[in-house]
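Model: Ready when you are.
Researcher: Fold this.
Model:
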Amino acid sequence: MNVSHLLPTLPARRAPASPPAKAAPAPSPAPKPRDAFFDNAKYLAIVLVAMGHAWEPLRGGSRAASALYMTVYTFHMPAFILISGYFSRNFDLRPDRLKRLITGVAVPYVLFEVAYTFFKRWADDDPSYPISLLDPWYLTWFLIALFVWRLTTPLWRIARWPVTLALTIAALAACSPNIGDDLDLQRVLQFLPFFVLGLHMRPEHFRLMRRRAVRWLSVPVVAAAVVFAYWAVPRMNPAWFYRRDSAQELGAPWWVGTVMTFALFGCSMVLTVCFLAWVPRRRMWFTVLGAGTLYGYLLHGFLAKGSRFWDWYDHPWLHRPLGEIVVTAVAVAVVTALCAPPVQRAFRFAMEPRMEWAFRRRDG
């Protein structure tokens, strides 16, 4: 007798499920293309910095050189700091950004502060000159200032009136002689408004500066600034433009520091707008050098200081019009070469060290 119909029906045996396929890792996003306008602006600003340093020893015998020096010093560092603030807009305290702040700003500060000190000991025949990381020497003040400014970026992002607050801090610093020289805090505080303003600028603000009307209006404005500087040369202390001293240290009453803070901020911003109005928007032969401006900035300082230590400016012909033109051309050529990609590759170990050994790996 067939009893198969009496047995319970067993479910069909399923094949063992295969493990789910592992998702392919998402491709890393392509790096954002660099903006030619800002690379051009950074290169041209660093050229002006080098020119200003080259003109400094020429001021004693040439009122015209002094007027150009004063005009350039009104805006070249404010423009550079404004752009630095603009590119710090997204900075926060994320580990990867803190790491870049350490490797790209703090470490170069330490290395170049030590290198400049040994250079001064050798070139200036001053073997006892001390190494002090609290007292930036020559150009390294910008690195320590940038470090402080970026660390405080989250605070400036939430402040209600950030530029007004920064200007108030700068004005108070300008009339406070007791701040001292540690970390060059006078410069950190007095240049702060330009960084804060850059933090809050948007691309459309730069587009407004590049309008044709602004460009042509900038020509008479710059001409008037040079004429005014020529008039002011024997009447004004150029140390105001360095922003490293208080009003009292410059021999003025305390309230002059407040007035000069706001006056210089206004003049600097007007000339910065005039400068940015003429910066090319398209790629130029020097656009690639914009990525190496910090290299040119720090490295040209050895030649700028060496020219004083070795008395290069003692030749009388350098103080004549043709000599001044030659000095200017040499300064432009030197800083251009120091911004070039081969120099970047050679000094990347000091300017952009990876330092993976110094940081803990993040899980996941």
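Researcher: Now this one.
Model:
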Amino acid sequence: MLRIEIKEGENIERALKRYKRKHRNVKVMQNLREKQYFTKPSVKRRREVQKAEYIQNLRDQEDI
């Protein structure tokens, strides 16, 4: 559970912004979506390899 302590005299908008940043960094929603259905480990690995190949391809194109 995320806890945001509001400092004395701190604007509520600033506290909300800190909460949203922490929420995004913890990846709460991403984990919930991933756990909605089961993916086989081989499929996970295949996706990771494809993503790595894609990123490497982009970096190689930048070097050209």
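Researcher: Key takeaway?
Model: Residues 15 and 21 are 10 Å apart (CA to CA).
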